[in-house]
Amino acid sequence: MNTKLYRSLTFLFLLIVVVSCGDDDSTPPQATSGFTADKTTVKIGDEITFTNTSANATAFKWSFGDGTTSKDISPTKSYAAGGTYTVSLLSTGAGGSTISSSEITVLPDPELYYVDVDASLIAKFGITTPGDVTDFLDVSGMAGPGLAYDPEHQKVYFGDFEVTGEGKIWSVNLDGTDLKVIVDGLYDPYQISLDVENGKIYWAQDWDGDELGHIGRANLDGTDQEYVVTGDGWFYALAVDTKHDKIYYIDEDTEELYRANLDGSDATSILSDVSGYGIQVDTGNDKIYFENAETLYRANLDGSNVEPINDGGGRIYGIVVDNAEGRLYWSNRDTGEIFQANLDGTHKSVLKTGLGSPRGIFLKK
Amino acid sequence: MIRKLYILMTGFVLVMIHGCGEEDYPVPPASTVPKFTVAIDNNEFAPAQATFANVSIIPDRAGAVVYSWSFGDGTSSTEKDPVHLYKRPGAYDVNLVIVTSNSNEIIESEMRLVIKDPNATGIPIYFTDGSEVLTALINEQAPLPSSTGIKSLSDGYGIAVDTAHDKLYIAENGTNKILVANIDGTGLAEFRTGIGTTNAVAIDYANNMLYWDTDTGIRRTKLDNDNVTAYEDFVTGQAIDPTGMSVDPVNKRLYWNTYDGGVWRKNVDGTSQEEFIPGAGGGGVLVVGDRLYYDTYNLVSETADMMTVDLGRTTTPLAIVSAMPNIVYGIAYDGSEDKVYWNDRGNDRIMRANADGTSPEPWYTGVTSRGLAIGKIK
After folding, report:
1. Looking at the structure, do residues A161 and A258 belong to the same domain, yes or no?
2. Contacts of residue B20 in chain A, CB cutoff 8 Å?
3. Domains located in chain B, CATH noted
4. Model confidence at A212, in pLDDT bands (50, 70, 90)?
5. Range of the domain at A225
């Protein structure tokens, strides 16, 4: 009996020795951590799908670099703000833990700038966060409907029709510095359009004291000011087609929409019975957008194939065409709203309401 | 043979100790611990700037670390000690994530911040989660509880609002104390000490008196008496632990519930003590007009029912809500909307119903609340 107990205990003892040190005998393979992302440069809100390529790991934890985490094997993720984010994956297995990291670039939220003539303010908001409005510039005493942006030099241009006959065009850097008058002594300036490649700024101008309206232009610093179009009527709407080197403008006296060379030569009416405050050219799709009697239209560059884009209801001074995203933005002075839609006007939604008198707009990407 | 066995066992123990020695650390490795504190300006009203202090513990073995913060409003930062402006009121879950380079860790720490709405109006409601007194407004908006600043309570249970003097009384179960503070959370002080194991307080405005319970009775004291040890026994010798109390100001009676006993009452002049609803006790009781609200605890099912009955007991008691997982320590009444509120502690929520007991609904979910009191409109 004792011998049997002895044998049993010896066996138990050996078993425990073998089992208790079993982990030492075969080292488990070290976990490796790795992952891929289906896209590494995204816009705000885009969903990124990560694919886990780790080996010898059974537990995972992700840090997305924006203070959020996940324990999924292969998570999806979207970001709410622009920036560069370091994504880290901690992969843990029997052989330990390893971290791998990779960067995701989230493009900044495009900002829509608008001038509100009632509030004497140029302000901006991110198009995914239209509730967060930031003042850009107090334009008290220098307000007007024209607003344009030169992304190459990060300069904002705006018109000033506060004092009739003393209209001005101002420029200011995007950081708010170097505010200055570049063109002075205009009759009321309206829409402004830039031709950065050729270093020119164009503007439409109301009747002056001689009862003549103009399309004027100058160098971007205001030098070499000249009128390229002069008419019996007044001019509000103007756009430069920088791809084909043309200007489009509406003569409110004749209610014709004209296309002309940059120097005003070869002016041709492409549409009749048109009266409006804004034109914009979509150089990517060779289209023009324009207001006619409080409705936004789209047409081919020769004036053919006119299609209504919205259902009217107010004067439209500001139009932005975002080719890359296929999005269209416009302001409505009379309803105090800013809209967005697809380029054909579908999926229209209100971005902003409750503004006093929104006029010119531009999109800063 | 016994000796052989002894030697064998000794050897066995030695092998157990030494056999795996190379795996043992002499000292456990220091851990990385994510931690932060926050200071919020503008009295925590929007817009408020939050200044975060990263006080994480980073041992040497962690190596280089990367911080990332989520501020809970869609924005983030990778600064060590960020400053963030909250533009709008709301509850924000702030998360700090630490990624370490050498020790291979991704760990995080979360904290909820409440940025208050400076324009909000409503009826203030107060409640305790045992360690803190929280407040929210009853209005058309979703409840947004925030701290009164009264924290570090030692098992705080019942609370009472003295709306005549804008004071808050808190029964401290863990330290046998009653604390008093201004209604805005400032001026926290000891009101009474060494007064027995209490979990509820009630005010008798007509006599300027505060009542509290002990394990076997009820005591009371004048609200304007500054002596921290002054009290008198009002009820003694209760066989079952008295809990919540409420004063019926019309009939000048104190009602109290007992843990798993019944609902009792006694005139405030000290006469006519009786068990009003036998064998139906729980944690809370409240008199509103001619109605009584109380909970009953069922020892078999270990659940509580929220009940109401008229003080004349002409009707059968009505169960407003049945089978809550815990007894109710706080019941309060909002006269502006004629609604009764109570703590459904086991479900981590505050409930409410019409005063007639109809339409019970959760009012706020997310707090393991004990005491409950409602103040004046603001």
Report:
1. yes
2. 20-21, 23-24
3. 36-115 (2.60.40.10), 123-374 (2.120.10.30)
4. confident
5. 111-364
